[in-house]
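ARCHIVE RECORD
Type: protein–small molecule complex
Small molecule: iron/sulfur cluster
Source of inputs: curated submission
Record status: active
Notes field left blank by submitter.
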Amino acid sequence: MTLAKLLAQYIYENYRESVEETARKLSSLSPIDLLVLTILSHKTTSINTIKAYNNLKQVIEINAETIVKTPSEVIEEAIKVSGLQKVKTNRIKKACEYILKNFNGNLDFIRDIPTDEARKILLQIPGISYKTVDVILLFSFNRHVMPVDVHIARIAFRTSLSDGRRDYEYIRQKIEKYFAKYDFKIIHLGLIEYGRKICRARKPKCSICVVRECCKYYCSLVK
Ligand code: SF4
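STRUCTURE (tokenized, with ligand):
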């Protein structure tokens, strides 16, 4: 069995229920909500990301117009549990200003545009990364794209799914190719779980990992 197939099988058998629930919740959010959530998730835990997002939702309605009008200090205070609140507020506001000015505050038009073109348009929004764009495309617009977060990048690098490369676009295309026949929402969220629980940044649990026999990192350790 291939490495991707082993990982997919493990994810479907062990994480399916929880990731389906998360996928359902994320898919119900607007593109602006996802944009805010993904910016908030930078360098923090998922628990603090959700706390910051919920705090912000209690203070303001999350849409481009309201975010632009709201003073930075109000947003900073609401999201401070996620850390880097000044940087994150600045990025959220800049992105919303652009969306308001260029798209009248609404990204729904993306629904009618081919994926490659949509990526190019969304990547022009200041303050948003490739990952944020792909999260929006996957969950808000149901496109077959694979956002690459830090956990997925680590798994791809260690196993050599990414051929030893660390650049976002290369990893994304490789992961999309290897997992092409699976549901990307399940695989994306499942790989993140796998990175949190098994292929951890520190002390990966290689002894219980289903792909250890074909993982370059593990094989180099036991040589
Ligand atoms: S064998 Fe270890 S390094 Fe390789 S994917 Fe599994 S947990 Fe990660």
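CURATOR ANNOTATION: The chain has a mean pLDDT of 95.
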